[in-house]
Amino acid sequence: MTSLVEVARHLPSTEPVAALQEPLGLNDLQLRRFTRLYGLDQICKAPEESETELLLAAARGLDSLRGNEHRVRYVVRGKGLRTTAPYPHSPLQRVRDELGLGHARGFGVADHGCATGLLAIDVCDTLLSADGDPEAMALILTGEKTFTPFTQWVTDVSIMGEGTAAVLVRAGGERDRMLGYASRIYGRADGVIDMNAEVAADARKIYQDVLAEVVLAAVTEAGLELDDIDLLLPHNVNRVSWTVAADNLGIPKRKLFMDNLPRTGHCFCADPFINYRSVVDGGVLRPGDRYLMTSVGLGQTFAAMVFQH
Question: Which residues belong to any copy of the Beta-ketoacyl-[acyl-carrier-protein] synthase III C-terminal domain (predicted)?
Answer without folding.
Answer: 221-308
